[in-house]
Amino acid sequence: MRSEELGETLLPKRLALPIFASDPLSSVAYATQEILLVLTLGGLAYLHFTPWIAAAVVALMTVVVLSYRQVVHAYPSGGGSYEVASVNLGPSAGLVVAASLLVDYVMTVAVSVASGVDNVISALPSLAEYRVLMALGFVALLTAMNLRGVRESGQAFAAPTYLFIGGVLVMVGTGLLRYLLGDAPVAESAAYGITPQEGDADLAGLALVMLVLRAFSSGCTALTGVEAISNGVPAFRKPKSKNAATTMAAMGIIAITMFVGVTTLAIVAKVHITDDSCRLTGLADCEAYTQRTVIAQLAAAVFGGNDSIGFYFLQAATALVLILAANTAFNGFPLLASILAQHRYLPRQLHNRGDRLAFSNGILALAIVAGLLLWGYKANVTSLIHLYILGVFTSFTLSQSGMVRHWNRELRTETDPALRRRHQLARTINATGACITGLVLVIVLATKFTQGAWLAVLAAVLLWLMMRGIRRHYDHTAAELAVTDPRAEGKMPSRVLAIVLVSTVHKPTLRALAYARAFRPDQLEALTVAVDRESLDHLRKQWEDFEIEVPLKVLESPYREITKPVVEYVRSMRRAGPRDVVAVFIPEYVVGHWWENLLHNQSALWLKSRLLFTPGVMVTSVPWQLTSAAVADHAAARAPGSVRRGEPPNPPEHAAARTEPKGGVRD
Predict the structure, then answer these.
(1) Which of 278, 201, 188, 187 lies closest to 45 in space, CA to CA?
(2) Counting beta carbons within 10 angstroms of the beta carbon of residue 321, is it exposed (0 to 12), middle (13 to 18) or buried (19 or more)?
(3) Which of 273-287, 539-553, 624-638, 652-666 is most confident?
(4) Mutual angle of helices 50-74 and 390-413, in 10-degree steps
(5) d(C-alpha 220, C-alpha 53), whole Å
């Protein structure tokens, strides 16, 4: 796609919702499960805390959604939390947000894909041994789809998201209707008891508070990805801010409705789930028993068993949407990385768009890191979840604190009473959001740090330090390259001394000599290193037989080394004439196959790498294309992307036939 076609990739709200909100919508599939998993550490006695924890999660989500609607209107450029924190709290705070979000995006891919694989296994338990392979395959598929472009991935991912929303709402509605009619659905695990984890049988005081807080922090996974819309405002159609805010409101309403419905239905159906199936009492063989997810148990209970059409439909939709939920990160991570690269905090390659106007390098980087996490943790949701949501609450807290400062600044200059009331309401919302999310951040740190969250903290700290280092490098480079005195720095050299490196007389050597002559240097000489006497005598004889007028300089090398004598000779020329420029011409073979590179050009590569560090020395490669290179170049002209590289789509000999008018006469 041409750069001018970027406007055609902008998204309507119906496509933006599944692209940017699939993560918070899909987290409904495991947020309730995470609450139950923590509460059942103490046995069945503590499940009565579930509705209160769910209510706290809903209240928190409402505040966060309202807060980010303010961000969308105030900062529509797409920086989201990073831009808000950077502008209002300073660059260091902005980098904390950026590092946290980048880590969280990676975790979004890992957790979403792992959870999706769990739901596939719930429907087809025989696939359990292929868990990691399936997870990596899904990451590869997501990567390929996103490399095609934002709009294409949105069209492909929209249907599963809407099918999941519809399936969950139908399940919740049917289940609650049955409950009201006196025929409440019963989960397959309802008959099983739960043995408390050792030491958690009779909790009281601080231990009970910590259990409830830990369950709450796990349930807060329902909020992951809420900020993605604020980062993706530039991808919306105009009016961008209004459409993004509307999409965020729709996402919040749908996510809260589904989360409340699933949690209520799980309580009604008496779903019992543990971190270890052998803690379930009443099983004949706990080792061989595979626990189904909460969504799977509810679907079976509502729709009539594990073989019903409704069960398989919802499991398929859930697995798809959980895997596609990673698409939120595949859109958020590359976009944020591009902004950071533009601000010189990440390598500039991450700012570039690929063939399909997608940030290809960012997409590939995310896929590689997430794939390594899935492989290292064996695609286990319970292990990965402890590394999750820490980053998102860091960004929530700092961005809302930044928004409070933003509204304070606006209120100092605003005189319109209506606008002042609107700004004051917005400030109240953001201040409330900052306080609540800050409290949740403390809870998450306290309850998850020792379970593995320390790894996420360490990764964010290292990433923060790395970005600071990259910025320092770019700043130092820019300062060093800045022009301070154009006359002095653009001054012509006193002389140009040209050297052509030779080992024997063949076509590449003669081309390099001719090319060096074309530069009309003040002094030109050929340079060779005497590694063995026989080869040197042969070269001298060739030089005389071909009557080459360029003088041949021979460097002695008693230890058979090539690079060191050449570099020392070139440096001696620079010392003799500091205002001279030394131009070194190196004839090289160009080959068409990767394995041929192993047979040629090793001396040239090493020489170039050493000479490039010598001030005042210009190194020029003079290529000679072998037959294999010409064949490879002809094949590349027909390869995908050749038009983007400026190559003709067809061989040149057909160009006349394509452009000739119908009458057969050309101008």
Answers:
(1) 201
(2) buried
(3) 539-553
(4) 50
(5) 10
H or E, element range at 376: helix 360-376
Report, in angstroms and rounded to the nearest whole number, the Rg of the chain calculated over CA atoms.
Answer: 33
- Cα separation, 60 vs 374, in Å, equals 29
Which residues touch 542 (CB under 8 Å, ≥6 apart)? 504, 505
Judge if pTM exceeds 0.85.
no
Token representation of residue 151: 């709009």
Please check whether residue 72 is in contact with residue 248, taking contact to mean a CB–CB distance below 8 angstroms: yes
How far, in Å, CA of 67 to CA of 172, rounded? 29
User: 262, 172 in Cβ contact below 8 A?
Assistant: yes
Q: Which of 585, 586, 573 is nearest to 614 (CA)?
A: 573
CA distance 598 to 591: 10
Work out the burial of residue 510: count CB atoms within 10 Å of its CB; fewer than 13 is exposed, 13-18 middle, 19 or more buried: middle
Highest mean pLDDT among 171-185, 206-220, 290-304: 171-185
How far, in Å, CA of 587 to CA of 500, rounded? 8
How many Å apart are CA 362 and CA 98, to the nearest integer? 14
| Residue 83: CA count within 13 A, CB half-sphere | 22
* Beta-carbon count within 10 A of 168 CB: 28
Q: In 10 A of CB 647, how many CB atoms?
A: 13
- 407 vs 298: CA distance, rounded Å: 45
Instruction: Look at the chain and count its residues.
Output: 667
According to DSSP, residue 449 is labeled: I
- Write the burial class of residue 363 (CB in 10 Å: 0-12 exposed, 13-18 middle, 19+ buried): buried
Type of residue found at 347: P
Distance between start and end Cα atoms, the chain = 32
Q: Is the dihedral of CA 117, 122, 127, 129 positive or negative?
A: positive
| pLDDT tens per residue, range 416-456 | 888 899 889 888 888 988 888 888 888 878 777 777 778 88
The encoded tokens of residue 381 equal: 């949701």
Helix (H, G, I), strand (E, B) or coil at 206: helix
- Which run of H or E residues covers position 14? helix 13-26
